[in-house]
Amino acid sequence: MTDNVVNFLLVSQNEYAFKFRYRMMPYKLILLLCVSMFTSAISLADEKAIALLKKVDELYRSQSAIATMKMTVVTPNWQRTMTLQSWSRGLDDTFIRILSPKKDRGVATLKLDQEMWNYFPKINKVIKVPPSMMMGSWMGSDFTNDDLVREVSLVEDYHVALSNQGSSHLLTLMPKKETVTVWGKIEVEVKKDSLMPLEQRYFNEKGMLVRSMVFDKVKEFSGRLMPARLIMTPHNKHGNATTIEYLEMEFDQDLPKNIFSLRNLQKRFN
């Protein structure tokens, strides 16, 4: 093959490659634009999901809050009703005291940052709750210690995805890699028109539904609309359920500094 022929073939090949790249440029631009739009759509969906989850996560939280509530624990063999009062400061500090019945009056729970204690006046003893027991039952109810003091922030500890489910939004929460939890997945159903939570479902790592919490009786407390009743049902304990009903709630009140202290926890309450 002569040098002229070789040169001709090389030039022709280069011209073809140039023309091919030139012709493909619009398709590449379209592809890049589609990818960009898809990424933007995902980003907007993520932002909406996070904003919605944050609203649900902070519904019962504020700079400070004082609440009076009734807790009813139902089992196949017995039923128990308690009246509680709670004080909370942000996400870190919570104090809960049982007001009635008389035999439980004065039993109290204190959470300071990452530490938690229970006080039992009948034996005049303070018992520290270790981190391993945060998912344990609070006072024999179907709510855990963590549920009552709300130590976990769903927004910070879970990845969230948003999907539509008829008249409601469905938030699917998957734990982040660094999150320590017994839940493999949490689903939160939120009503579209009012953005009020309807139900929260908890699944184990095998994907089995372990418990669910229903929200109802929306009321206004201190100018804030929120479900006044929460019903927790464990699906591995037939006939069991625990209901918390908020009777009174005030937000952003000035709280005495000594409320969140071990001294106040052990204070005799008549």
CATH superfamily: Lipoprotein localisation LolA/LolB/LppX
Quickly give the structural class. alpha+beta
Mean pLDDT: 84
Strand order within the widest beta sheet: 6-5-4-3-2-1-13-12-11-10-9-8-7
- Please count the beta strands (DSSP E, at least 2 residues each): 13
Stated plainly, the CATH topology is called outer membrane lipoprotein receptor (LolB), chain A
Task: Sum this structure up briefly.
With 270 residues, the chain is an alpha+beta fold.
How are the SSEs placed, and which strands pair?
Layout: H1 3-57, E1 64-74, E2 79-89, E3 93-100, E4 108-112, E5 115-120, E6 125-129, H2 145-149, H3 154-157, E7 158-165, E8 168-175, E9 185-191, E10 197-203, E11 209-221, E12 224-234, E13 241-251, H4 262-265
Antiparallel strand pairs: 1-2, 1-13, 2-3, 3-4, 4-5, 5-6, 7-8, 8-9, 9-10, 10-11, 11-12, 12-13
Walk me through the structure.
With 270 residues, this protein is α+β, with helices and mostly antiparallel strands. Helices cover 25% and strands 41% of the residues. The protein is built from four helices and 13 strands. It has helices at residues 3-57, 145-149, 154-157, 262-265, and strands spanning 64-74, 79-89, 93-100, 108-112, 115-120, 125-129, 158-165, 168-175, 185-191, 197-203, 209-221, 224-234, 241-251. A 13-stranded antiparallel β-sheet has the order 6-5-4-3-2-1-13-12-11-10-9-8-7. It is globular and about 50 Å long. The chain starts with a helix and ends in a 5-residue tail after the last helix. 20% of the residues are buried.
